Amino acid sequence: MPDITLQDITRLKFGVGQPVPRNEDPILLQGQGRYTDDLDLPGQLWCVMVRSPYAHGVIKGIDIAAAKEVPGVVGVFTGADLAEYGPLKCLLPLKNRDGSPLVNIERPSLATDKVRFVGDPVAFVVAESKAAAKDGAEAVFVDIDVLPAVTEASAAAAPDAPLLYDHVPGNQVLDFHFGDAEKVAAAFASAAHVTRLSLRNNRVVVCAMEPRSAIGEYDPATGRYTLHVGSQGVFGLRAQMANDILKVPTDKVRILTGNVGGSFGMKANAYPEYTCLLHAAKVLGRPVKWTDERTGSFLSDQHGRDHEVEAELALDAEGRALAVRLTSYANMGGYLSTVAPLMGTGNFSKNIQSNYATPLIEVTTKCLVTNTTPVSAYRGAGRPEGNYFFERLLEQAAKETGRSAIELRRINHIKPEAFPFSAPSGSIYDSGDFTGVLEAALEAADWDGFAARKAESKAAGKLRGRGIGNFLECTAPPMKEQGEIRFNADGTVTIITGTLDYGQGHWTPFAQVLHQTLGVPFESIRLVQGDSDLLVAGGGTGGSKSLMASGAAIIEAAQKVIEKGRLAAAHMLEAAPADIEFTRDADGTGRFTIAGTDRSMSIMEVAARIRTANNPPPEMPDSLDVKHVFGEAPMAYPNGCHICEVEIDPDTGITQVVRYVSVNDFGVIVNPLLVEGQAHGGIVQGIGQAIYEQVAYSEEGQLLSGSYQDYALPRASDVPSFGFLSRPDPCKTNPIGAKGCGEAGCAGSLPAVMNAIVDALSDYGITHIDMPATPERVWRAIQDAQRA
Q1: Do 45 and 127 contact (CB within 8 A), yes or no?
Q2: Oxidoreductase: is it a keyword of this entry (predicted)?
Q3: In angstroms, rounded to a whole number, what is the distance separating the alpha carbons of residues 486 and 308?
Q4: What predicted TM-score, i.e. pTM, was given to this entire model?
Q5: pLDDT digits over 518-563, tens only?
Q6: Ranges of each domain in the chain
């Protein structure tokens, strides 16, 4: 960061690098947060969706007559009522390997011809109360001619698979290819050893703490829509709703987001319910509210992951990687979400490299529609998967060639002297010490003491295994981002930016950056993020880029504040602007001083004096306020090494994570307390996918894991205390020096946990098991190995 010394960092109580508690925690812990469902508007009506009970079928008719007669019901709507609105569709300009564009699917907000997954909305009921709306929804009769269903991507590619769309031959929307197939084939042909693994990236339910909820309003006097909704960025959501769906200018749409109880990618884009609410509000002349229940969330919230992968690694005689190749099926679900194909295509390609100097990469992915809930981004969105695939390949290659897996990593790590490193994925890594991070993790995990711990577990009748999860992920590149700073009459300072906090805790680190850069009092800083009317730019939150984007925008805006402050202070101190210096006191207070003198004013004094100035000269600014847009910056490359130890009860198959440590390079860490919390959350989600979570469908497409009675999540008792260490190597491509951290926990935990489980099961000769390693699956693997 510019103009900041080590002394600044260590002396400022609220400066960069300090573990400052989250400003919003006292508000949230006292129940004073405002989530969407907490909001009720005058005259508000309630909406309940009518969803398909079948995975696939032709809609023969929808009878709404009985629903209209239910007491309290004021409106019943079907797809025919929404014909004026645009569809939801994939917004990625992806191409097939032959250069043709992907086969897009334009999804109406309510199905009109066919239903394509259980939970597909076909109608909605609006009533005076939620209970009346439920009664009305139950009275809607939907006549569906049921068709055969397909739920697996590979099965959807079969010649005799049911077709979901007439314009999508073979159910395939994209045949993606990256890499030089001939060079990769030559590398495999010349390899001293080739390792192959079939890997399943299991489908998961996002399970955000707060179910989706929204309220639609319409002002007939102005023709303006307002949507109160949990989101990951109001600026982008406004553009999607206005341009693609409502077909109105963006100034006719306002998106408001308060507190958000988790998203992990799922709440980033528009959903059918939002169109329904805004239409009903317009037709009925009253606000309309909808809040999903957990069963509805399981059915209709976009799911995560779901890839079937054949992974291959070619090594030379010395153990150096020559090439890595992925051949995959990616399940899109019944429709294409906004970014549905991204995870198994571009993000596989960028992240399979990890932190290894593999010269050749090839990724082939067939994206197919199935009769399942649509899939979209989920924490990491292809980044954890890429690291998981390579780490599992490397561990298996070590076993097959009789090498140390640690030494194989050391041999293949990109060395510090190679930076900037041009990866075959197209990324340019700017910094890192990957072997150094590995060595620090081995020491922190007491790697050499494992044998004694394994013996103790064996004496207790348990299997013990350990696993390494090296990772490097390519964050999303920061897009144009607003950094607005306002000096308010009450002495507070407001930051306005287009990223959005949905649980991360943006207020505190953004305030730390502003406090350190500009020297305004930390306790006076406020943050506004969730009002599209206040934004002229905003990339939202996703891809671990928020601090890089908003932090950079805040720093650049602060420099403009300083320049305005120099002009104002020059007039107030009766000096030339060139003689005014901006410095910070020992307590961090920003101050404008006449060079070589002790005459000065604090930045807050200057801001207050401007407001009350009489007859100021024309060259003096009328405030210190700045509205600035930060330009785009390259992606960053957070990396690290996780080491996990597990115990398995061979009689039950129950796996327990018993030790866990991670060493991470997140670049400059603004707030280590929050960063460690982000890492913990990501690790637990990785443990969940690795051991517990699995979306299951019947052959007919019915969701078998449709509630928490059937879908397992990790609990506090399922995880140990986490060891967390930092070994930062600052990023060189953004002014903060940060690398992002929000999704890194998943990237390291998936391979660390699964490598540990396979290591424990190796006592039985087992070399691989797919996620999730549930007790039943582990027990069966042991039984099969004993019978072999």
Answers
A1: yes
A2: yes
A3: 50
A4: 0.95
A5: 999 999 999 999 999 999 999 999 999 999 999 999 999 999 999 9
A6: 6-33+477-630, 36-147+213-291, 149-201+303-414, 429-475+636-788
